[in-house]
Amino acid sequence: MAAKLIKGTEISKQIREEIAKEIEELKQKHGVTPGLATILLGEDPGSKVYVGQKEKACNKLGIYSERTDLPADTSEDDLLELVKKLNDNPKIHGILVQLPLPKHIDAERVIYAIDPDKDVDCFNPVNVGKLMLGTGRFLPCTPHGIMELLRRSDITTEGKHVVVVGRSNIVGKPIANMMMQRPSGGNATVTLCHTGTKDLAAFTKMADILIVAVGHPKTITADMVKEGVVVIDVGVNRIGKTPEGKAILAGDVDFDAVQEKAAAITPVPGGVGPMTITMLMRNTVEAAKASI
Hints:
CATH class of the largest domain: Alpha Beta
Distance between the termini: 51 Å
CATH superfamily of the largest domain: NAD(P)-binding Rossmann-like Domain
CATH architecture of the largest domain: 3-Layer(aba) Sandwich
Shape: globular
Largest sheet: 6 strands, parallel
Order of helices and strands: EHEHEHEHHHEHEHEEEEHEH
């Protein structure tokens, strides 16, 4: 029997409705409009689309949006000066510098320069440290979205064996940490696999919940999972184009085959993807609340 689809598009819509109510309450009771500043360097098509989606989400929800597009040859000092101005701007509660940055700019230095209280991506080491301790105000957007997908789909993580494939700082490491935290929504036993893991299938077959974020299409095949597994596929890979020129997308999991064994699975597109920007909006609202 085919798996239940965990539909991020629908769950994201529910959360955005909740966020919109919180924003209206902030405006009415406290006269505060959450503000998000985005900075984009260069003309990378994917980055431009992503920043545009964030701007659109802000406008729809009633979040003040301030976007700065800079040429790719902008100096690191000029970028840091802009970040400093946004740190000092009371209208801005969240700052997002779109990655990747041009090679002549030290991305780590820029991320460190963002005020931790405005670091709505949760990349600053102060917030990463708080995440490790389970005391952070913000959670990284994609991992937070994964947690919400599971929670709102009534999928219990407590006591389950969660296997994470991929160790990026954006998804793999933080979701592994969040899943092992004691509070509700985690409390799982976690195995983290990566390119150095020998016999990957031996680990993925043990997973009650399998989270895959490797950036390579159809890495996980049906023979690598057990019956009844819950699969969260973070990957979005362009594998071709339709005759009309539209991109054909595939996840990191062989969806058609794996869904026949899984109890629940996220589709690509329409699974984890819609949740990332929604949780960015959530973090911006939380930052605005903290500023009162």
